[in-house]
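Quick question, first post here. What does this chain look like in 3D?
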Amino acid sequence: MSRLRIYEDSRPEAPVSVHASHAEIAHELGKAGIRFEQWEAAQPVAPGASQEEVIAAYRRDIDRLMQSEGYQSVDVISLKPDHPDRAALRQKFLNEHTHSEDEVRFFVAGAGQFTLHIAGKVYEVLCEQGDLIGVPDGTPHWFDMSESPYFVAIRLFTNKEGWVAQFTGTDIAERFPRMAPMV
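> Answer (accepted):
Ran it through. Tokens below.
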């Protein structure tokens, strides 16, 4: 189940509020300038589907965002618990960073945890199948896929080459909870 926990950035031991309904999550994130949507496939997506099949199943929503937000490219990424580089891939985005363009992810399957640091608050968003999150450029955040990652996600880009993490140098991500493995 998707979940949003909001913390004061100086108090990682206890969230100020917890939200589990998609409407509440979208409302709370929207107040902070973060896009959160639910998408449904236009056709079934079988496990192991090709990138083309996955994109085709969500083409209507992909095209809507590309037209309204100016995204230029789309791809699909997937990661399974047996991936030999899973630990290195996880570590790559565990520290707080920003990007010079939006980070947009739609979870076709599995889950991932985005944690955003905005105006003295920390928004921990557990995204699961059917969730889209849009993190605006320049927003400090980190991403965790757990020690046993599993997800298939559609990514939208303005410029794929421009999507580079700029680390903030703070240790805030180390003080907040990591994503628990999904069971």
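DSSP finds five helices and eleven strands in the chain.
The chain has one domain: 3-174.
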